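Task: complex structure prediction.
Instruction: return structure tokens for all chains below.
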Amino acid sequence: MLEILSAVILISAIIMSSLRRVNLLIRGFSVQSLAISLVCFTLGFKTGEVHYYIIGALTLLVKTLIIPIVASKSVRELKINREMKLIIDGYWSSILTALSIATTYVFLDNFNNDFVKAGFVLMVLGGIILIGRKKAISQMIGFLVMENGLVLFEISMIKMTLIIEILIILEVLMLSVIMGVMVFYINKAFDTVNTDYLSNIKE
Amino acid sequence: MIINIIQSMILIIAAPLFSGILKRIKAILRGYEGAPVLQPYFDIKKLLSKERVISKSSSFITTVGPIIILSAAILSAFLTPVFFTAGNELIGNMFILIFILSIIKFFNTLIGLDCACTFGGMGSSREMFIYMFAEPVVFLILAFVYFETKSFNIYKIAKLNAVRTDISSAHIVAAIAFLIWLIAENARMPVDNPETHLELTMVHEAMILDISGRDLAYIELASAIKLAIFLTIFINIFLPFGMAVSLSAAALIKAVILYLIKMLVFLLIIAIVEISIAKFRLFRVPELIAASFSFAIAAISMMYFS
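Output:
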């Protein structure tokens, strides 16, 4: 079960790193979060600790339901819902993904835990999504993928206290709501959500 | 030994049936009746009774090409396990299998170039463009399979994976990579539309455009066998549970039934993919194959550094 879930997480991350349509990015993110919350529930069932269940329920509620709804609501306002000129295009983004996954696995050779490595991979791939796109909303998805990696990393490695975990989830929720509002206003002001145009504000 | 020959003969005879089933499933999913599942046999029978028409400007390649293609397809069918494997066969090296299957592609390309028809040349150039990106992926997948089972022999790989009970996540990721490669290599939907004869979009059909009669029957049969072989390789490497490893009647019957079920499931998956997404632009095909490359590298590093 855990193996299938970690495969789903990695597959969704690799596919997301080369997608250019924002709708599909959001859908991939919600599938990934669903898999992560199922990982939390499985670990909780195996160890019998309560805080896994709480993290799983929070992930399920916030990342699988609320954030995709907010994000797809702001996508619906856009005129162009795909990336037109990527900074790193799909082909090179996939190659970069492959190289960074291999490098991550080489560096983390000593950790005998699948989810630590998968968490690091998600952080790196979130970074690739973050720097390769121009639209504000797909940059937000990249940041959220990085955060997913953090969750995966900490449920398997460190024992963070529950307070910090809840604060992180809350912060992500606030970020996505603020981003949703901001994307709406950027779109209203500039007729696009391309972040290049933000430098026009200087004048 | 004799069972290997029998299972490969069954695979060759049943190959047009699988492509007929695939066409029928697509027709039903699109909402119309569709041709009967035995239609490919009728087509091949009709084409075999026709005489061959060869262009005056073509060379000996067009004369011998279709026979070579068919014989390469039949030879590769005899190198794959279908539902039984003992694990100690001397044949079945994966590299030989892959290179025999690329003979089919090579002669298809030569036939496309041979009679100087512009469509043929265009199709050949597109086919080679896709093939150039797709070929490294399969060697990465073979490397993964070697790290997993310490063998390049497909009979041995199938036997080792058939008795395996735990399934690693690298296995699933590599299976996805192989599936994308299979679709690209067999000219199925996101890469090439197998039904079209529109000159802007066809890749595989453009190369065999000026083949007719008996030669066309050979090529159609070869491509049906090729699809069946690729799906069989996929099933035997990545999902060989329930495969017969001993020669008892109960194990063989169970293996045949499971093989048919797996085959039908994958034909259904291909049909759903084909009717639900449009063909990619030619210059976006490398993105798809790069994703497959990325899956393969991920699988290798998960297997090797764990």
